[in-house]
Design brief:
Layout: E1 7-12, H1 18-30, H2 32-37, E2 38-44, H3 49-56, E3 64-68, E4 79-86, E5 95-100, E6 103-112, E7 115-121, H4 125-133, E8 142-146, H5 148-160, E9 161-173, E10 179-180, E11 186-188, H6 191-197, H7 205-209, E12 215-217, E13 220-221, H8 222-231, E14 234-241, H9 242-248, H10 251-262, H11 268-287, E15 291-298, E16 321-324, E17 331-335, E18 348-351, E19 356-359, E20 368-370, E21 377-380, H12 384-393
Parallel strand pairs: 1-2, 1-4, 2-3, 4-9, 9-13
Antiparallel strand pairs: 5-6, 5-8, 6-7, 8-10, 9-15, 11-12, 14-15, 16-19, 17-18, 17-20, 20-21
Helix pairs in contact: 5-8, 10-11
């Protein structure tokens, strides 16, 4: 884009400002010329989130402004720059369709006897047009989400963006996303909200009983979005798994450098902070199987997008810490039920090599190490002084605050 003097970034759905803070911090520290040209706008529908975002971004007040409104209804004027979002269109309201007795049906909400009920009936014309236009397969026993608002959103962005790109991260795939015998929308939320609603993850009526207090999401079919974008003059330079776009931009080398730095640390706090960072990458790279990315550009030659030659075989291996175990054992039993992250794991047997037990940093403080038969407690790492001694013996400076 020839380094414009003003580069606009529009983030839709700012959440707790984690993405915007990382973006601005990276630009300020590593790309000062780009940072000087940067104007960052957050589009946020949640009134209660804007003050939290403003507090998180207090060091960047001169760079950021807010639009309080809906992502698919807000007007931006003319934009040259980048529009980004993370887990946005999956939160839009969707229609739900299936096939019953060989006929396409749409789910509606009604009230009977003063109670919310869901009923299947004839689809409205807009839903049928979407199904026909984008060749959506509607099958018996499968609910397919029809995200009309996502189309409106993409059309509004296409009109607003004169030159630049749209980068979207979300759950879904480039195809129909319905699953056999599973609702087209999923219910999530904090544990206290689930208890209040007396609901499991598939109890969508909790959302009717507690509107606004539960998180409802639907997988995104990226194919219709790509079709609409093409009609609006965009080129698709990437639509696929997020791990693949990360590999394309060189994340493998970044992770290798991070793992290498692990072995240079002497502070236990540095070790645990790096482990959390690496676990976040591991989740994105390998555990979030439906996490997709789409990168669209307009009025920019596709040849300017230079990808790395990705190492498709790269696998992030999280580093471990050596713990000395006394006794002539070839393996030990590790009880991690006192560690919140691992509390649901059964007691696990770990091999020893020359009396050394290798554990991830977050498996250490709180673990109980037993003989293979589980009868003898060899090391009680739930005791702060013993955990401190074991960590310092591994070569790290330990503080209980870590």
């Amino acid at each position: 884009m020839n380094k414009p003097s003003s580069f606009q970034v529009i983030e839709q759905g700012g959440g707790l400002a984690s993405l915007s803070h990382a973006f601005l911090e990276l630009a300020e520290n590593h790309y000062p010329d780009f940072y000087d040209s940067l104007n960052y706008t957050i589009v946020e529908l949640g009134d209660d989130l804007i003050p939290l975002q403003q507090n998180r971004l207090r060091d960047y007040n001169s760079k950021v402004k807010w639009i309080n409104g809906s992502a698919y209804e807000s007007s931006f004027g003319s934009i040259e720059g980048l529009i980004i979002s993370n887990e946005l269109p999956d939160a839009f309201p969707v229609e739900r369709c299936t096939k019953i007795e060989s006929k396409i049906k749409q789910k509606y909400v009604a009230i009977e006897d003063n109670m919310w009920v869901e009923v299947w009936d004839t689809p409205d014309d807009e839903v049928l047009k979407y199904i026909g236009d984008f060749n959506i397969s509607i099958e018996e026993g499968v609910e397919e989400p029809i995200n009309l608002h996502a189309l409106r959103w993409m059309k509004s962005l296409g009109v607003a963006l004169n030159k630049g790109g749209i980068l979207t991260f979300d759950y879904g795939k480039k195809a129909d996303v319905g699953h056999w015998n599973r609702p087209a929308v999923q219910f999530y939320g904090k544990s206290d909200e689930r208890r209040a609603a007396n609901a499991k993850d598939d109890d969508l009526f909790a959302a009717y009983r507690y509107p606004g207090n539960v998180d409802i999401t639907a997988l995104i079919n990226f194919s219709p979005l790509e079709t609409i974008a093409s009609e609006l003059g965009f080129d698709s330079v990437f639509t696929g798994y997020q791990k693949d776009i990360l590999l394309n931009i060189g994340i493998a080398q970044l992770l290798k450098d991070k793992v290498d730095s692990f072995h240079r640390f002497t502070s236990w706090q540095e070790v645990t902070e790096l482990e959390k960072s690496l676990q976040g990458y591991e989740d994105i790279m390998y555990l979030a199987g439906h996490y997709f990315a789409q990168f669209l550009i307009k009025d920019i030659p596709t040849s300017v997008i230079q990808w790395e030659q990705p190492d498709k075989d790269y696998r992030l291996i999280l580093p471990k810490v050596p713990i000395q175990i006394d006794g002539l054992y070839e393996e030990v039993l590790v009880d991690m039920k006192k560690i919140k992250k691992w509390e649901n794991h059964l007691d696990l047997k770990f091999p020893l090599q020359n009396g050394i037990l290798m554990l991830f940093p977050d498996q250490i403080v709180g673990s109980l190490i037993y003989s293979p038969d589980g009868k003898n407690l060899l090391l009680d790492l739930s005791k702060p002084d013993i955990a401190k001694s074991a960590i310092e013996s591994a070569g790290y400076q330990y503080s209980s605050e870590a």
